[in-house]
Amino acid sequence: MRHSIRGRFLLVSVISVILALIMASLVLINLFTRNLERRIDEELTGHINNIAGTLRFAADGGIELPDRPVDRRFHEPYGGLYWQVEDDLRNRQLRSASLWDTSLPLPNDDHETGSIHRYHLAGPEGSDLIVQERKIVFAAPDGKRAIRVAAAIDASVLLKASRTFMFDIIPYMAALAVFLIAASLAQLTYGLRPISSVSEGLDRIRARKAERLSGTFPKELQTVVDAVNRLLEAQSQLISRARTRAADLAHGLKSPLTVLFNDAETLRERGEVEIADELVHLADVMKSHVEGELTRSRIAGSASLRSSDAELATSLKTIVRTLMRTPRGEQLSWTINVGDGIAVEIDPHDLQELLGNVLDNAVKWSRSAISIDTQWQDARPVLVIEDDGPGTSPDGLSTIMERGVRLDLKTPGTGIGLAIVRDIADVYDLSVDIENIDAGGLRITIRF
Fold it and tell me: CA angle 325-327-330, nearest 5°?
């Protein structure tokens, strides 16, 4: 994943979405809790005001509450909602039935008369209570008197409500996470589509189906596309100039070689046959090397630089037709079993150079027959060329494709034909195997 832009973006998106939703959930739970606390505080304040509004003083000056709050939780033992009224002066206390046999241990701290004092207390059965207390001054028969009115609620109500809310929003947050991650993936796919277009364009260039990147690209990628096109154009110009210079060099050497041949004939006419033969031999070697290097200069620098794919049968027919017209080729029996429509990823010119050198070698050494056949291995074409010549020694098999190696110095040649075959095979990653045939002859197997 660390080598994939898509994987990196997806990982960051998943982590970001999860963290964002966790923080959002915490914020929502906190907001819910705060609002619930506010509602609870308002409820407790309302109960205190209702209780304070119904307080009365008996004839003896004691406090009494004729109209008690009607909320059923006040009447259920340990019902979770409690009230308590204390008259510190008379040491008199009224409390809700829900407190049963307990009372609220209101602290003896001073706070402003009339204001709400909020705190937590330990309640019945070890519960935690949210308590609101208000000190109110009443006009009693014997004068003004401060009465403490308190209302309390079990804090577990707040905790349970918050927990319930948390579990309620989890499925929605999970669904939202899936949606956001899917949206991020869709956005990423759409955003990376132009990069895929660039990759497809480069594949078409490599397959020689196009010469440059074309189409409409985002401005962020357009500069890269323009740079690649400039690089392709510069590369094409460099290759063209290199081939032109190689051709110019070869043509420039042809004239001096022609002069050497003429000088050799002149020497032969003067009777200096040995020197003439030596000059002719040297000129032939130089001419063969020049033509070989000129051939190499026309070979594509890499498989991706080929002009197009080649059709195997078409290239073979062209070469065989030419070789059959030579004096040596006319004397041979040709067996060709190559079907039409077999395309190979080699430049057509390079394929002709490869097949031409292989078949020229077969014509040179064959006694009477040449066989050309195609096979298939792993859905890939395999070309098998056999001759009925003398074959070669085991040592010769290992060196036959080396540059300048000639296994028979009596036969005309420069020893670079199969070396060119090896060069082309290296460019296109072909497998070329050479072996002796038991019945006599040589078999060359080319796996495309």
Answer: 60
